[in-house]
Automatic annotation (TrEMBL):
Signal recorded as keyword: yes
Domain of life assignment: Bacteria
Protein name: OmpH family outer membrane protein
InterPro entries: Chaperone_Skp, Skp_dom_sf
One Gene Ontology CC term in the entry: cytosol
Length: 155
């Protein structure tokens, strides 16, 4: 057991970022999010291609079009461009929100597992962020990752 005694206290360290990033829960959620991102990116690319086609049409057919047709096409291009910008902004906000939700959810799971391991192994203090140095023998990150794998496999 990677623990160190400090007097009567048992101390361990955990790297929460490594634990989250190496957990199967994170990998599964990341893969699902990536699939969703790719689908939305395809949609945005399709909208961009439609705008480009309308711009090409305006350049090609503009000299043959009436002033009202040109105005209508320009308005359509501007409107689609605004909607595309809005959709991109919304996509970026959604992506950031989903990433934060994922990290928060996994952070809670990591916290629960760390507390379980601390109780099971009579650990008095577990330190995570802000470490300058820790001896690898007191790092319980691998134990936390293994427990998260067990939890993931039970689902």
């Amino acid at each position: 057991m990677p623990l160190a005694g400090a007097g009567d206290y048992r101390i361990a360290v955990v790297d929460p970022n490594r634990v989250v990033e190496q957990s199967p829960q994170y990998e599964a959620a990341r893969d699902a999010l990536q699939a969703e991102i790719e689908e939305r990116e395809r949609s945005l690319r399709g909208q961009q291609e439609q705008i480009a086609a309308l711009q090409r049409q305006l350049e090609k057919d503009g000299p043959l079009m009436s002033e009202s047709e040109i105005q209508r096409l320009q308005n359509d291009i501007r409107s689609r461009t605004r909607r595309l910008k809005y959709a991109r902004d919304e996509f970026q906000e959604d992506f950031a929100l989903r990433q934060n939700e994922l990290r928060t959810k996994l952070g809670r799971q990591v916290q629960e597992v760390v507390v379980e391991l601390a109780k099971e192994n009579d650990i008095d203090l577990i330190i995570s962020d802000g470490l300058v140095y820790s001896n690898p023998r007191i790092d319980i990150s691998d134990l936390v990752i293994e427990r998260l794998k067990e939890v993931f496999e039970k689902k």
